[in-house]
Structure formats: C-alpha cells, structure tokens
C-alpha cells in the first residue's frame, strides 16, 4: 500500500534549519513558479505588441509590471526558505498568492493601455496581504523573530494601502513618480524588518536552486513565445477565407509566408541565444554568492530582477523580430535588434558583476562586458533583422565557447 502524504491542518510556524541536508524545492514551490510565469508571459506579450507597433513606451509598462511580479515572487521564495511548514493553512495562503498573480496577469493589458488597472492592483493586493497573513503566523510561532515578523506585516500592509490609494491618481507624470516612491517603500520594508528584529534564517542551497529553477522556467517561456510566433508564419493559408476575399493575419494562424531563408536565420539565432543564456547562467554554482556576507546576499537577490526581466524581454524581442521578417511590424530592424541586444547586455553584465564580486577579481567580468559591447555594436550597425538575430546569437554562443575553453584549461591545470 502506498504511503499517504498526511498534511496537518495547522502546525507551529518555526524557522527551518538553514543547514538542513538535502533541502530542495518542494512541489508546491515548483507549482508556484509555474503560475507566476503566466503573469510574466502576459507582460512579455504586451511588450512584444508594443515593440511591433512602434509603441516603445511599452518598455516602461513592462518594467512596472515586472517589478510587481518579481517582488511578490522573491518575497515568497525567501519566506518559504525560512518558514515553509507545509500545513494546510500554509498551502491555502500560497494558493492565494498564486491566484493574485493570475488576477494581476489578467489586468496587464489594461495597465499597458491606461497606466492603471484595478485588476493588477487587486491581484497585487491579494498576493501581498496573503504574505501579511504568513508573517503574522511567524510572529506567533517564532518568538525570537517576532519583531521582524511584525515589522514585515505592518510595513507590507501600509505600503499596500498606498498602492490601493494610488488608483485615485491620474496623469502619466504623477503615476510614474508615485510608482517610484512606492517601489522605494517596498524595498525599505525588508531592510527595516531585518534591521529591527534580526535577520530571518534561510537555506543558501535552497535559495540558489529556487533562483535557478525560476530562470529555467522563464527561459522556457521565451522558447514558447518564439515558437508561437514562428507557428503563425508557417501556418497554411485559410483557403476558404482567401476565396472569399478575406485576409487573415499570419499571427492569428490564418496563413504566413512559410519557411523562408530569413526565418531560418532568425530561428537559428534565437536558439543560439536561448541555449547560450542557459549556459552562461549555469556556468557556475550560485550558492557561493549567497550566505557569504549580507551585502553579497542582498545584491544577488535584488540583481535578479534584471536577470529575470532581461530573459523575458528577449522572448518579446524575438517574437517582434519575426513580425519584422513577415513585414507585419511598424518597427525597424535596428530598433528590434536593440530590443534584443539590450536585455542580453544587461543579463551578461549583471551576471558578470555578481561573479566578479564573488571572485573578488574584476577580470571575471571582462567576458561579460565584451559580450555586451559586441551585441550592442551589432544592433548599432543595423543589419536586417534575421542577420542581426543570427549575429547576436553567434556572439552569445561565442561567450559560451570562451567559457568552455577557459574551463578546460583550468581542468588541465588541476582545477586552479
């Protein structure tokens, strides 16, 4: 007879052992990540639309939405590393955060169109207030960290009330300014809580795995977005619609130009980019960036907003490049090339700086800086979109080759 996974209704929420052996991401955490990627995909789809139509202000909208998604994900990831008690109430509150992310995803188009969205704010409020409930449980179950937990709970509640009040504001200038102020307030809450009541425990290997798995899932979203864009191009024309004199957009699956040399170059470059981004992220174990000094730990945690956002933006740029190839875009090849090159440069530089800080050697960041310069130079030259994507893909693959050669040389020298 198979063993049942018996989950208690409620158990004391005390801290988990930060040195616990074999600590890995739980099935609930994996499900949590998968649901959050839906919100990321929604934001990336709106960015793709903005790039293709030449509405480049969508980049700012993407940044606003992505902060909300990342902030809610990151807060839960670190909380779970410290206090995952896996009882029924904990699971239900986790489901509430997941539901909030889906509600936020549903409101993303409105936010891009109007700069405000009740659905986005409601979804964010649901996510954050569920976190308040979790911190109140910690305040009751972990007496040594009660001050920390209560500071989190009160701080999140106050800032969330301000986000809701922000719905009454109008005008892009006022909206952007208030957003910046509230982002600073959000970031200040963890700093204040950990200063007042002492730092909460976390498991370095568990956190490193959580960030790594989320990176993989976002890369998967990039592949999905790219494949869907190519599918629209390869779709056979709608014979009945053509006979009736109706034109059906290729992106809707009604018919594209089929497999062209340009599309082959673009697909090849896109695959090189995605595979190389994975390799560059996992070329080292990131656990050495966590738990070795408070500053380094916070830098690793917060810098990943740029890593995750850059990966998602790559997917949007690749889909926009397909539109350019199919002449269904108001954007130029150069603008789309920059939309692709900039996130790759950011991704490379952020990882390069983190690795250099961990090694305490600025030379570690030289390959990353070189890659950033090369991909931006390709975009500046302004070749046609398929050639630009291929060249950028070759550049990222070149960075992987450089790493492999260096690694092999070190192995030959005995791992020094």
UniProtKB/TrEMBL annotation:
Keywords for this entry?
Membrane, Transmembrane, Transmembrane helix
What residue ranges are annotated as transmembrane? 59-76, 88-106, 118-138, 150-169, 175-193, 213-234, 263-282, 302-324, 336-357, 364-381, 387-406
Q: Does the keyword ATP-binding apply?
A: no
In its UniProt entry, the species of origin is given as Pedococcus ginsenosidimutans
PANTHER family for this protein = BLL5714 PROTEIN (PTHR36840:SF1)
- InterPro entries per record: Low_temperature_requirement_A
**Which domain of life, per UniProt?**
Bacteria
- What name does the UniProt record give this protein? Low temperature requirement protein A
């Amino acid at each position: 007879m198979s063993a049942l996974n018996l989950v208690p209704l409620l158990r004391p929420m005390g801290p988990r052992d930060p040195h616990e052996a074999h600590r890995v991401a739980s099935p609930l955490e994996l499900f949590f990540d998968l649901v959050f990627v839906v919100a990321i995909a929604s934001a990336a789809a709106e960015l793709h639309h903005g790039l293709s139509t030449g509405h480049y202000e969508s980049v700012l909208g993407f940044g606003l939405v992505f902060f909300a998604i990342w902030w809610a994900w990151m807060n839960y990831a670190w909380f779970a590393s410290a206090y995952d008690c896996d009882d029924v109430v904990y699971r239900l509150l986790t489901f509430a955060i997941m539901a909030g992310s889906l509600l936020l995803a549903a409101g993303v188009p409105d936010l891009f169109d109007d700069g405000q969205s009740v659905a986005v704010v409601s979804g964010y409020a649901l996510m954050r207030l569920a976190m308040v409930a979790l911190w109140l449980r910690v305040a009751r179950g972990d007496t040594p960290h009660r001050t920390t937990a209560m500071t989190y709970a009160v701080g999140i509640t106050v800032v969330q009330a301000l986000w809701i009040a922000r719905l009454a504001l109008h005008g892009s200038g006022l909206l952007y300014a208030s957003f910046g102020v509230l982002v600073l307030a959000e970031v200040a809450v963890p700093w204040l809580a950990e200063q007042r009541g002492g730092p909460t425990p976390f498991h370095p290997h568990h956190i490193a795995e959580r960030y790594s798995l989320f990176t993989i899932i976002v890369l998967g979203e990039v592949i999905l977005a790219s494949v869907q864009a190519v599918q629209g191009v390869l779709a056979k024309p709608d014979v009945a619609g053509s006979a009736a004199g109706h034109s059906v957009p290729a992106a809707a699956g009604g018919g594209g130009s089929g497999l062209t040399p340009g599309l082959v170059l673009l697909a090849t470059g896109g695959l090189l980019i995605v595979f190389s981004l994975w390799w560059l992220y996992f070329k080292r174990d990131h656990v050495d960036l966590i738990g070795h000094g408070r500053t380094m730990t916070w830098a690793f945690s917060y810098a990943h907003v740029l890593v995750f956002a850059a990966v998602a933006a790559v997917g949007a740029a690749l889909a926009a490049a397909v539109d350019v190839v199919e002449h269904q875009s108001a954007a130029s090849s150069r603008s789309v090339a920059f939309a692709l090159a900039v996130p790759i440069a950011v991704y490379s530089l952020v990882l390069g700086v983190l690795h250099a800080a961990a090694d305490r050697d600025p030379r570690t960041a030289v390959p990353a800086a070189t890659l950033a310069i090369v991909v931006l130079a390709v975009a500046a030259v302004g070749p046609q979109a398929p050639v630009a994507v291929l060249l950028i893909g070759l550049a990222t693959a070149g960075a992987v080759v450089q790493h492999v050669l260096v690694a092999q040389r070190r192995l030959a020298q005995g791992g020094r």
